[in-house]
Amino acid sequence: MIDVEDAVFDAVYRSVSKLVPKDCFKSVYVPNPSKFPFATLMEMDNITDTAHQSNVQRDEYAILTYEANVYATNKSGCRNVMNALDKAMIHLGFTRTFMQFIPNLADNTIFRYTARYRAVADDNNVIYRHS
């Protein structure tokens, strides 16, 4: 497995750190955040890129999918954090495949913005844009 999750997480956090405290930026699902704004960035998928697979007995390329969720008490705060996070992901070489406000049926005072990104990483941890 090609593992770039910590490097991606750290690079993105550096880009949003002025907007989101460290204890409010996680790489795992948190069902009930206690402070806002709050954000998660999770690697959702890491699969072998079979189009570039050779006869070696290890991954040479992996297709990665990440999901970001931003929660805030107002829509503009949610959008500001997501904009910073999105710029960081694009800068790293990811392609955004989804971005949408998600209705929060449990508490309509908390806004949620979700985005998904894809990229390819090689066995030297270089990230390439995925079309």
Q: Your description of this structure?
A:
The protein is an alpha+beta fold and 131 residues long. The protein has a single domain, classed as 2-Layer Sandwich (Alpha-Beta Plaits), CATH 3.30.70. It is built from two helices and six strands. The protein has helices at 5-16, 75-92, and strands at residues 25-26, 38-48, 61-72, 95-102, 111-122, 127-129. Strands 1, 2, 3, 4, 5 and 6 form a six-stranded mixed β-sheet that branches. Helix 1 crosses helix 2 (75-92). The radius of gyration is 16 Å and the shape is elongated.
Briefly summarize what is shown.
By secondary structure, the chain is of the alpha+beta class. It is built from two helices and six strands, in the order αβββαβββ.
